[in-house]
Amino acid sequence: MSESIPASLPLRNDLIGEEPYGAPQLDVPVCLNVNENPYAPDPAVCDSIAARVRRIAPTLNRYPDREHIELRQAFATYLKRESGVDLSVDQLWGANGSNEIMLQVFQAFGGPGRTALGCDPTYSMYPEYARDTFTAWRVAHRNEDFTLNVERTIAAINEVHPAIVLLTSPNNPTGTPLNMADLKRILAACETAPVAGAAEGVHPVVVVDEAYIEFRNLGTPSAVTLIGEHPNLAVSRTMSKAFAFAGARVGYMAASKGIIDCLRIVRMPYHLSAITQAAALAAFEHTDEQLSRVGHLRDIRQQTAAWLKTQTYQGRPLEVAESESNFLLFGGHFADRDRIFRELLDRGVLIRVVGPEGWLRVCMGTDEEMARFRTALAEVLAEPQ
Ligand code: PMP
């Protein structure tokens, strides 16, 4: 890729040699690599999307509602139902995937002289948002079992004085949830922490990325329940995962009006197309259908985790990280994970090489897809290592 870029182009010095981010998009029978919901929208949802888009098509000569008010109301209605929290339209914000929301967060709160802090291993896009906005990226390492190390995280907050503290719950690629007590301790530490490069009295924004939160075990609360008490807390969500709407590219953020108003400063005008808004509104009309497989995927996760633990590699059982998401990080001691990845791919099963050395990630597919995954992995593990 980088060889195809002529040396005469004035690409930013810090981008020279960089590769575009993204998992391989391959035409294989079993795609378990990007944490999508494997179930297609049902025909009633497709009809509603078509009808809504047909209705607005004659208005496409005009720009869309820049403030996407109707959609922000739909986010509020959804969060009320999903987490029991009352939020107003001005506490919600949408964009083209939570990727775009997060970039807006970095544009608004990061920048030269500013630092963002994450807890690795974590989502590999975060350092890219930091790079793209000239924000320094620092990490506080998680514990061996991938739970957050709260002491280390608070020590890092007091050392690097970040403008953004990025927590992920459940975390990608490990699936680890963040418990409320730990989140509250970090929020309390941030509420008195200074921000390097900012005026006195300025404190970090704490972003909880809840892309996979609907897959959490029943009873685990969402960070959106804390928004009312914490003006510097922002929670990002997406329709891409549990909501089975990745292709539409819709993410959203719940936060104080102040935080949302900061994002409004940096957003592109009319960033969310009228077609996207119409499709998302149609999908929210069918929330029950869109979420109907979440419980099943949660069960499949439990069954797959149990099965993986019965498998061995080099005479030792596979490790499986505790997950409240729709994927599992497994292995722990694969000596050559790239080979296992390739051999699964040879058998038509695409998973992901991501996370610490020795581990691989698989996302939950349909029953048939998971059966093919199990057969293929058992074959690969049975070969001499
Ligand atoms: N956050 C996390 C932790 C993710 O894993 C992903 C997708 N892989 C995203 C955010 C972005 O999702 P989207 O842009 O589709 O909303």
From TrEMBL:
PROSITE patterns linked to this entry: AA_TRANSFER_CLASS_2
Keyword field: Amino-acid biosynthesis, Aminotransferase, Histidine biosynthesis, Pyridoxal phosphate, Transferase
Cofactor: pyridoxal 5'-phosphate
Pathway(s) the chain acts in: Amino-acid biosynthesis; L-histidine biosynthesis; L-histidine from 5-phospho-alpha-D-ribose 1-diphosphate: step 7/9
Annotated coiled-coil segments of the chain: none
Catalytic activity: L-histidinol phosphate + 2-oxoglutarate = 3-(imidazol-4-yl)-2-oxopropyl phosphate + L-glutamate
GO process terms (BP): L-histidine biosynthetic process
Positions carrying N6-(pyridoxal phosphate)lysine: 241
Residue ranges of every copy of the Aminotransferase class I/classII large domain listed in the record: 32-376
A family per Pfam: Aminotran_1_2
Primary enzyme class: transferase
Keyword Plastid applies: no
An MF annotation (GO) of this entry: pyridoxal phosphate binding
InterPro entries: Aminotrans_II_pyridoxalP_BS (IPR001917), Aminotransferase_I/II_large (IPR004839), HisP_aminotrans (IPR005861), PyrdxlP-dep_Trfase (IPR015424), PyrdxlP-dep_Trfase_major (IPR015421), PyrdxlP-dep_Trfase_small (IPR015422)
EC number(s) given by UniProt: 2.6.1.9
PANTHER family in alphabetical order: HISTIDINOL-PHOSPHATE AMINOTRANSFERASE, HISTIDINOL-PHOSPHATE AMINOTRANSFERASE-RELATED
Subunit structure: Homodimer.
Family: Belongs to the class-II pyridoxal-phosphate-dependent aminotransferase family. Histidinol-phosphate aminotransferase subfamily.
Protein name per the record: Histidinol-phosphate aminotransferase
Lineage of origin: Bacteria, Bacillati, Actinomycetota, Actinomycetes, Bifidobacteriales
Gene symbol of the encoding locus: hisC
